[in-house]
């Protein structure tokens, strides 16, 4: 189930750009989108925990809770801020390509830290997924390059790499729902503080904007986060990161169906490579021994 959960998470995250496009068309600003996304997601997750207290699991250590809040307040908030700052300076396709250097970064870092093994299957899947993502994104045509935008985009990839590696140290110590709620709360707190310091965010947009914000919060945040943590718990950081390369493929396919954008033969080839890497990893999950335990666990 681990690889399947990671793929579901990638698909949910992949729909984010489509929902965001519709939200922007309804007059939602980027600041309002991010703030409402995380506040609504946090509220939904805490409501679930209130109604289903058994999902909280046993008592979590203060260090684990603090780490989870920090993942949202620092990691998730910083990654989103860097990404959207870069998006103002450069084309989305090239920015996505730069962001999706993170699977390579996560895999290399996990191996160097002794948290994972770079088996032949996993290495082949990494190459296939990275090549497929490259073909999908470069197949969109000409792109503009902006040095500062590229730096911000790579910074977003580095932050997300650290986020995944840190999340791997707490994902085994608390249930996915509680962990997701804490992460969303941390991110919402940072974005709310930023909004207050900058005079707030505008919420005077068309009513349909709330529909798309709801889709972003429920599908591309709550569902995406829960399935990602559940998949990470079962597969380890490198496999989860490699399977996350399915996300831009989903985005491109949805854009073709819903926004009238056409897929080129190069993009179709790239999508096939990413899907093939997912199949390889699903097979490997059944045949290979379990991944090495996380080097640094969270203690009470």
UniProtKB/TrEMBL annotation:
Top-level taxonomic group: Bacteria
Record keywords: Membrane, Transmembrane, Transmembrane helix
Stored Gene3D superfamilies: 1.10.3730.20
SUPFAM superfamilies referenced in this protein's UniProt entry, alphabetically: Multidrug resistance efflux transporter EmrE
Entry's transmembrane regions: 33-52, 64-87, 93-113, 125-145, 151-171, 178-197, 209-232
Record has Transmembrane as a keyword: yes
Ranges for domain EamA: 2-137, 148-281
Recorded topology in the membrane: Multi-pass membrane protein
Subcellular location per the Swiss-Prot or TrEMBL entry: Membrane
Protein family membership: Belongs to the EamA transporter family.
Protein name: EamA family transporter
Biological classification of the source: Bacteria, Bacillati, Actinomycetota, Actinomycetes, Micromonosporales
């Amino acid at each position: 189930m681990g690889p399947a959960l990671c793929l579901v998470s990638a698909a949910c995250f992949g729909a984010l750009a489509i929902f965001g496009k519709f939200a922007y068309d309804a007059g939602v600003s980027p600041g309002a989108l991010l703030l409402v996304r995380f506040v609504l997601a946090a509220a939904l997750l805490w409501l679930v925990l209130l109604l289903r207290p058994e999902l909280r699991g046993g008592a979590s250590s203060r260090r684990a809770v603090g780490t989870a809040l920090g993942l949202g307040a620092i990691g998730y908030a910083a990654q989103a801020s860097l990404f959207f700052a870069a998006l103002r300076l450069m084309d989305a396709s090239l920015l996505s390509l730069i962001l999706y250097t993170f699977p390579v970064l996560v895999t290399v870092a996990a191996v160097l830290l002794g948290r994972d093994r770079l088996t032949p299957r996993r290495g082949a899947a990494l190459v296939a997924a990275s090549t497929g993502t490259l073909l999908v994104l470069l197949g969109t045509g000409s792109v503009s390059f902006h040095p500062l935008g590229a730096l911000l985009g790579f910074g977003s990839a580095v932050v997300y790499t650290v986020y995944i590696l840190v999340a791997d140290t707490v994902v085994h110590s608390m249930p996915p729902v509680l962990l997701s709620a804490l992460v969303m709360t941390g991110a919402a707190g940072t974005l709310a503080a930023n909004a207050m310091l900058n005079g707030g965010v505008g919420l005077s947009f068309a009513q349909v904007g709330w529909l798309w914000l709801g889709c972003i919060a429920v599908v591309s945040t709550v569902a995406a986060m829960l399935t990602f943590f559940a998949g990470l718990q079962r597969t380890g950081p490198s496999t989860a990161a490699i399977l996350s390369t399915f996300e831009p493929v989903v985005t491109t396919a949805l854009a073709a169906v819903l926004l009238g954008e056409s897929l080129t033969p190069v993009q179709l080839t790239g999508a096939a490579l990413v899907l093939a890497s997912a199949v390889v990893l699903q097979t490997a999950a059944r045949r290979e021994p379990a991944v090495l335990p996380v080097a640094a666990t969270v203690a009470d």
